[in-house]
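HOLO CASE FILE
Compound: flavin mononucleotide
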Amino acid sequence: MRPERQRPSVPALTDPLEIGDVALRNRLYRAPLLEHAGNGPDAVDTLIADLEPAAAAGAGLVCQGATVVRAEGGCAAPGMTRVHDPEFVAELGRLTDAIHDHGGRIALQLEHGGLRSMETWHRGHRERHPELEQLAVSPPPRPLRLLDRLGFLEYDARVLTTAECRELAADFGRSAAAAVDAGYDLIHVAGANMGIVHQFLSPFYNRRDDEFGDPVRFLEVVRSEVRDRAGDVPVLTKVPAETAAPPGVGPTLSADDCVRLCERLADAGYDALVPVNGSVFWDMSVVRGAFPGASWRDERFREGYVDAFGSRPRAALVAAANWVESLVYSREPAWNADLCRRVRERVDVPVLCEGGIRGRETIDGLLGDAADAAGMARPFYAEPELPARLLREGATDARAVCADCNDCVVPQAAGEPGVCRTPSVLREAGELRRAGAYERDGERAGEAPPRR
Ligand SMILES: Cc1cc2nc3c(=O)[nH]c(=O)nc-3n(C[C@H](O)[C@H](O)[C@H](O)COP(=O)(O)O)c2cc1C
Ligand code: SF4
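Model generated. Tokens follow.
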């Protein structure tokens, strides 16, 4: 039986939070967000440039964007960093030192894309790497096979054997061990957004009849691999509810299912949970907001879109589908709050809430009710030092300047870095910077607790 955790009834944003035995100085975190750093000679400097400002500005926790646990394949998007090689991961010690110097904590998110990997959707990547296998939990479900026939995806999937599922879980453990050696404070397993862990959790993807047909089994084995190889480092994971899936696509995870999965994952030793609503497809349900028309029209990215999607007409079709999604998944503030609240009533580990959270007032309303900590992702592209504004005492009307236009998202398919591309938003952030809005003293963020 897990010991019952004491929760302050209504914590303040600047109150510390413990995840496992790691103390965060406050309850504001940068959610995992791709940095496009790769593994080249500039990788560590790119990550430091992207992530250090959040810690310097007071974020309690910085979650690095998803990194891939294998040497080959498994990248969901161009430019992802691989963490299979302990020698490379050791170099990330410069990044973890930079975060710790500011009193912050850092989580490394581990991932394999499975059927969401570039091997299935990126035409140029597939042509350049015909040797790469598409690893799958089960054969692709019928709606995805239809998308294959329509030319949006290209499946030639190989279903993992039972032994290969175990080997993949061991790779998560090996990468976690290297990460702990490099100074990471927490391990974040990429359990949602249609990566392979999500595919194990989902009845849409998982139709196995071995032990891994139990949706939680893969994450249980990952948890014990991390414990065996990396010691007592706390582990958190996103947990999907497929509530945004189109009706009739097949069996999907309801909100009730997500709550049950979270209960089992807490029992399996996960130290914090991040429940998220999404779909079974890789669509805008994860990044709700406006149709990014400007970035689809931008001629500078044209070649990259053609490389990714195979031709101009196919890229235009993907853009049209993206437009339809933007009508269905327009942004609601804090769209995961209700799901998080339901999970928080049933588990005694911290529940982290992200997705459409923009203002301090919203955050204050979530803490102690729906969530133990609040995170943001896209706003950090626009304001890397955003925590300084949100953590300021009395800053109840502080809001991120991000306009949810998604023009930072789509060009990433074309191999472009994740940066804010909206001039009016960048101007506003510039004005705030000149007015000193991102300057802070140590007290505003809460004092840095001692390291473990
Ligand atoms: C460009 C981009 C990259 C993302 N990369 C990751 C990732 O690597 N891992 C992950 O779990 N979530 C990822 N997310 C999802 C975010 O963590 C977050 O849940 C989502 O963007 C909603 O939060 P927001 O409204 O504050 O942006 C990504 C989102 C965006 C926009
Ligand atoms: S481009 Fe800028 S304003 Fe638009 S969603 Fe991305 S960060 Fe926000």
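CASE NOTES: The radius of gyration is 20 Å. Residues 47 and 188 are 17 Å apart (CA to CA).
CLOSED: yes
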